[in-house]
Amino acid sequence: MPINKLPRGVAIVGAGMSKFGAFPDKNGRDLFVEAYKEMTRSVDKGLDPSAIECFYLGNFSSDLFERQGHTAPLLADAVGLTPIPAARVENACASGATALRQGVIAIASGLYDVVLVGGAEKMTNLPTADVTDTLATAADVPFEIAAGFTFPGFYAAIATAYMARYGMKPEHLMNVAIKNHDNGALNPKAQFGVTIQKWMEGRVAAALKKGKPAPAWSDIWDFLHDDSANPMVAWPLRLFDCSPITDGASAVLLVAEERVREFTDHPIRILGSAQASDAALHDRADLTSLPAAKLAASRAYEMAGVTPKDIRIAEVHDCFTIAEVVASEDIDFFAPGEGFKAAEDGMTAREGAKPINTSGGLKSKGHPVGASGVAQAVEVWKQMRVEAGERQVPGDVPLAMTHNVGATGSTCVVHIYERRD
Amino acid sequence: MTDTTTTRPFTAASFDQYIAEGKLMASRCADCGALNLPPRAICPKCHSETLEWVETGGKGRLAGFTVVYIAPTFMIEQGYGRDKPYVSGIVELDEGVKVSARITGVDAAQPETIKVGSPVSVEFIETGEGEGRKVALAFKVE
Q1: In whole angstroms, what is the distance from residue B72 CA to residue A131 CA?
Q2: Which among B86, B97, B115 has the least Cβ separation from residue A148?
Q3: Which pairs with CB-CB distance under 8 Å and at least 24 residues apart come from B76-81?
Q4: C-alpha pair distances (Å), B138 with each of A146, A148, B22, B90
Q5: What single DSSP character describes residue A373?
Q6: DSSP assignment of A42-98
Q7: Known catalytic membership, residue A367
Q8: Partner-chain contact A160 B70, CB within 8 Å
Q9: Is-above-0.95 flag for pTM?
Q10: Looking at residue B7, what is its pLDDT?
């Protein structure tokens, strides 16, 4: 199949996100307003909102999480953008990047010049069991959920297949969690912006404050192996292998190439945009890789005309630690079976050769499902413009990638970004 | 009399009905021979709309699994959860197709003893009675 190039250039000229976390007094709309306001402030030459012609929203399940459907026009109205067209895009956890891609396509088609892309999810209204059930609707319900699978369970099954093939141990996955918390600790927007070391020390301090005996963890590895501190969710995945339940929103402004200079002299161009679909997990030849991710990545590379070694950083879909390991191989940063070793060796750390999830990833930053794909683009925007503060990677970031997955890879969307001032 | 074994539509409801009868059925394309599980009404390989039901041999190997501690509501209602975890997995049948199912014949308390690649055979887990009777697809590790 020939790879279509974008017939018209598209760039990000503004990006913002709400704080991620649990906010009992804020609904998805309130959080989106926060993200939108930060986005407008980030446009270097200022934004006249009347320039925005169209709005795409990534949202997975406001219906079940908030008992609110028809979300896109409500959010457009909340930021004063009606009567422009507003459409909600649903592709499970890849809703955000799918919405971003729809925005890219809308501009590339020539129909619009200025498009707002948002993502929002309000998840913490529901008790955990109901959140588990809601997330499960992203699976093939009659054929997968009836077997007792949950989302941690699917990725756990991927982990067991990967362990059996490549000799990885569950302990290896903890390197991903430790690294992502190290990054998230430097991200003021992160839900759990704290290192695992600090988390452990906080638990000890809390116990002492209550007059209880202090837990005798010798180090973070001891802490992470303790069932009371890091309980099993779906073997071999424990609590610290899983992204949290999060409220949050994100927004980026896309503009056609020829109008970029009206908004900024430091745009982030979208060089590649690719998406692929797949059947349920059990309907794939191999459980240790996501074929849709491999396909989307290879098409994005081809569209952008770059290779994996050209990409400086990537934000990948680490809904679970094993997902980051598999993603790092699917986007061809590392060979199959090498991803967990690269994480262990520090290659994916901020100072490493291939930094992954400098934002803290879904693991530490939080995973408000529909917002995550757009929030990945927000992080890339900050890193490429050298605005990531303490977590800024060393050196230039001329090229970056985002990788956003729906379910166990029934959807994958990959974007490649270029900074060319 | 109509042979309901071969004329049932290729739907999830038909698949479940077979499971309730103790049969693990797949669809096979009459044109290209591709076998599909879950069943398909259109062959994903050659797009033929001529398919037939075939019963699988019910034997295979464990391709991946998990022990679930944080359970969905319908499993919590059956008494499963943190204190009583259960095993779910993906089985590759000898015919080459895979299916998601409950996994039995293993010790959920000792997940490290459960091995990917173990031979398994189909069984059916019944819960409830009358209108509430449900049958879940499972595989027992031999």
Answers
A1: 9
A2: B86
A3: B76/A129, B78/B127, B80/A148
A4: 10, 10, 11, 10
A5: H
A6: H-TT---GGG--EEEEE-S-HHHHHS---HHHHHHHHTT-TTS-EEEE-BTBTHHHH
A7: yes
A8: no
A9: yes
A10: 84
Q: Please give the share of chain A, as a percent, with pLDDT higher than 70.
A: 99
- A233/B38 Cβ within 8 A: no
By Cβ distance, the residue of A140, A145, A279 closest to B72 is: A145
**d(CA A136, nearest CA chain B) in Å:** 8
Do residue B90 and residue A282 have CB atoms under 8 angstroms apart? Answer: yes
Do β-strands B86-93 and B59-68 pair in parallel, antiparallel, or remain unpaired? Answer: antiparallel
Task: Tell me if chain A has a CB within 8 Å of the CB of B84.
Answer: no
Work out the mean pLDDT of chain A and round it to a whole number: 97
Q: A250: how many CB neighbours lie within 10 A of its CB?
A: 36
C-alpha angle with apex A343: A340 to A346, nearest 5 degrees?
150
Residue B128 CA to residue A100 CA, distance in Å, equals: 47
Q: Which helix (H) or strand (E) holds A28?
A: helix A28-42
Residue of A nearest to B65 (CA): A157
Q: What is the per-residue DSSP string for A180-208?
A: HHHHHTT-TT-TT-S-HHHHHHHHHHHHH
Contact B64 A161 (CB under 8 A): yes
